[in-house]
């Protein structure tokens, strides 16, 4: 069946069997009361994590440890996420969490550090006097838990619905960090949203062992986060006597990327600190540009590092919302080095292929908020839109299939209440392959 769509600007197109068509006639017509744009692509997020955030109580924006404990006591969840030491004035104490009579891990909003009670530490078989689990220690603890498939399926469905709510029709997702790859693959098997899954690699041994899975893309967590003070810096933090953590030694990182190159595998590497970026760029020195390797975050980068990214023809994947939500925290962590923090416009101005994303559940997966933040950084609306559509498609090798409203491409599109870039905008409807999968009107009526 051919269906003609037309928006308030008289922009029109035909969809046939889920594909944009050049046909001049149609069997049906739908006039939409809004402005049509290509479906958004969130090029770095955690679909399972977002879903878990939707179906478990959140600790976000709670003003005190007392309020966190109230939520923890009223819930039966083993893992709760979202507390922020910048709000509550420090970390929750293990002694307080030990008062909860079940295994419990409280994860900071960034996802890079958590505080566990004794019952949780026992089932995870970890010794920790203060209950603090950072980076690989927390990942290993989470991997030790037996997946609850029914609960995870509920989370995945909730995550998909949340992406559709914000006009996101494709997501690049990293969920195998603390879940088995086979579990993730099964969970995503019948979703409508397109998922470009990254296989998370924690070590050289794991890279060699998982080659049999023939992954298209691997995810490397090179360092941590500024919020948890685990992002690896060239010099010490302003508010902490340390430089952060590297999750790989230099030789190991070089060898993993070498194996990826030899096997035609794309590398998506998380690097937040300028020290981590130095190590990663050295490891990428002899990489194959055709594999479209990417660096995720790049929250600190000096001019010579940006130049090197361009010379190596590496893509980047940035989160404009961080520029707004991390502003106060970042100033405390790195002080005068804020001059090289969030250099997103400089990266784009240097001609580096740049996609935008949310890192949900760290941020709400709302590209409209991301575009608003990008504008605040001096990036124009059309460049921001391209970063949420065309560039995301490019980074998953699908630029010929999605990211534009064009004959022969997948009919993914979103209807907005106002022209892109205007204040007060919202998603009115999301269409996946020409099918309406989310509607603001339905929510209002419900």
TrEMBL record:
GO terms for molecular function: hydrolase activity, acting on carbon-nitrogen (but not peptide) bonds. Residues 34-420 form the Amidohydrolase domain. SUPFAM superfamilies: Metallo-dependent hydrolases. InterPro entries: Amidohydro_3, Metal-dep_hydrolase_composite, Metal_Hydrolase, YtcJ-like. Pfam families: Amidohydro_3 (PF07969). This is Amidohydrolase 3 domain-containing protein.
